[in-house]
Amino acid sequence: MEIEIQPTKPEDLPAVKELIKSGNLSTNLEKCRYVLKACLSDKIVGTVGLEFWGDYVSLRALIVDRRFRKQGIGGALVRRAIKLARKDGALAVYAYTLFWNNKHFRSWGFELKDKDLLPEEIKECARFYYPHYRYCCAMELKLRRER
């Protein structure tokens, strides 16, 4: 079976939010321009949201169902998210994640970034979701040079 990455439809949101809740993540997707789903047959097995904060994107609620991890689904979601961010002209993509996920983000091209050195728009994102991001590491993937 092949995983398909697609934009969510309104009728997908209950299943997407249940999956997000299963990882104890916030289901607040109101600021997302895009919410992607990973489907195996007709089952949603992963998701990620893309929030645009000025010229920057923050990944939101990246999660893969525990039963389907270690199959490249998270990477497929992130690659599609990066493609959308590029298409929409973002300068960089950021992810706030717990330290044990850093290796995944590094494998996708992200680098650990000091939170104090983040663009103001991404700092605003962290303030918006406080305290959720308080213990997270900031990861950055630059997409193009700032002008």
Taking pLDDT < 50 over at least 5 consecutive residues as the criterion, the unreliable ranges are: none
Report the span from N to C terminus.
43 Å
Count of separate structural domains: 1
Helix content: 25-40%
Given the helix and strand composition, which structural class is it? alpha+beta
Query: Helical element count?
Result: 4
Describe the structure.
The protein is an alpha+beta fold. It has a single domain (3-142), classed as Gcn5-related N-acetyltransferase (GNAT) (Aminopeptidase). The chain has helices at 13-22, 73-87, 102-107, 120-128, and strands at residues 3-7, 32-40, 43-53, 56-64, 92-97, 111-113, 137-142. It has a seven-stranded mixed sheet, with helices on both faces. Helix 2 links the parallel strand 4 and strand 5. The N and C termini lie far apart (43 Å). The mean pLDDT is 89.
Structure summarized in a few sentences:
With 147 residues, the chain is of the alpha+beta class. It contains four helices and seven strands.
Layout of helices and strands:
Layout lengths: L2 E5 L5 H10 L9 E9 L2 E11 L2 E9 L8 H15 L4 E6 L4 H6 L3 E3 L6 H9 L8 E6 L5
Parallel strand pairs: 4-5
Antiparallel strand pairs: 1-2, 2-3, 3-4, 5-7, 6-7
Which descriptors apply to this entry?
7-stranded mixed beta sheet, Aminopeptidase, globular, 147 residues, alpha+beta
